[in-house]
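User: quick one, sequence for these tokens?
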């Protein structure tokens, strides 16, 4: 019994670490598109996947660490905001359903598409010292969140089709 619990925790920790690495790479380097207020990336799709697959504490850690490391490597001033924002975004999703693309996670895509741009817009306004800093950050982050939502939906549907969640969790 003790071995099963330890084995399951190890599997979850390793999966979270792998997601953190993938989030870092897809945020900082792969399909990384610079914009005037930072960059647009596809790392959030993997934040959403991690949060749909892993229990909340592991998903929050994977999201915050992965995105935080990406900011540390590219735009370090954004790291504190990112640690909080990505942790909150991960909490919108659930891993409790049988599939990745369940109703709750579809609703979470909309919540993330509103919260993330608003939070980054607010962070930019604080960093710039003026409320006018909100909109230049909001618009590209909204586009990024929407694009990441589409990528997540396609990936989640494909992974649900092959039964990844059931396979990973049944071992």
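Assistant:
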């Amino acid at each position: 019994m003790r071995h099963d619990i330890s084995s399951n925790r190890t599997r979850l920790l390793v999966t979270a670490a792998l997601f953190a690495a993938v989030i870092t790479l897809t945020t900082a380097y792969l399909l990384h598109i610079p914009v005037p207020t930072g960059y647009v990336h596809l790392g959030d799709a993997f934040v959403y996947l991690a949060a749909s697959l892993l229990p909340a504490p592991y998903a929050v850690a994977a999201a915050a660490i992965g995105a935080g490391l990406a900011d540390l490597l590219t735009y370090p001033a954004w790291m504190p905001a990112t640690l909080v924002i990505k942790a909150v975004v991960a909490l919108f999703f659930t891993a409790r359903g049988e599939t990745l693309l369940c109703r709750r996670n579809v609703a979470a895509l909309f919540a993330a598409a509103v919260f993330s741009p608003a939070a980054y817009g607010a962070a930019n306004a604080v960093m710039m010292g003026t409320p006018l800093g909100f909109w230049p950050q909001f618009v590209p982050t909204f586009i990024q969140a929407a694009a990441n939502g589409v990528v997540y939906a396609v990936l989640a549907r494909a992974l649900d089709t092959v039964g990844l969640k059931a396979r990973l969790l049944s071992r």
